[in-house]
Specification:
about 130 residues, 4 helices, transmembrane, cell membrane, membrane
C-alpha cells in the first residue's frame, strides 16, 4: 500500500503582482515626463499689479445695475443695442460686476437679446490654479 502524499499548498503568484507593479511604475514615470519642462531661464509675466480693465467694446454692468459703454452711461439695454451697428449686434460683450445679483444679470442678457443682440458673451476674470 502506498501512502498518499499531501498536495503542497499553492503559492500566491507574487511574481505576477511584482510585474504589474513594475509596469505601473514605468507607465507613471513615462507619463510624467511627456510634458516638456519650462526653460529655467524663462521669466513668466506677473499680473499682480495689472489694473483690470474692460475691453473697449464691452458693456460694463456695475453692482448697482448701472450700464457703461466706453465711459458713457447707458439708459437701458434697448437704448444700448439701438445705438449699435448691425455688425456690432452680432456679438455683444458684457462685463458684469462680481457683486451683481445673478437674477439681474440673466434679466439683462434677455433684454439685450430681445433688443436685437444675436449673441451675448460674458467677459470674466480667469484664475490660474
Amino acid at each position: 500500500m502506498r501512502r498518499r502524499t499531501r498536495a503542497k499548498p499553492q503559492r500566491e503568484p507574487t511574481i505576477a503582482l511584482i510585474n504589474i507593479v513594475f509596469l505601473m511604475l514605468v507607465f507613471f514615470m513615462v507619463a510624467g515626463t511627456l510634458a516638456q519642462p519650462l526653460d529655467p531661464a524663462l521669466k513668466l509675466v506677473r499680473t499682480q499689479e495689472l489694473e483690470g480693465r474692460a475691453p473697449p467694446d464691452a458693456l460694463v454692468v456695475h453692482a448697482t445695475g448701472k450700464l457703461d459703454y466706453r465711459g458713457e452711461v447707458q439708459e437701458d439695454a434697448a437704448a444700448f443695442v439701438s445705438g449699435l451697428s448691425e455688425e456690432q449686434r452680432r456679438i455683444v460683450r458684457l462685463v458684469p460686476d462680481r457683486d451683481l445679483p445673478a437674477s439681474e444679470l440673466v434679466a439683462l442678457t434677455r433684454a439685450l437679446q430681445q433688443a436685437g443682440a444675436r449673441k451675448v458673451m460674458l467677459v470674466t476674470e480667469r484664475a490660474l490654479p
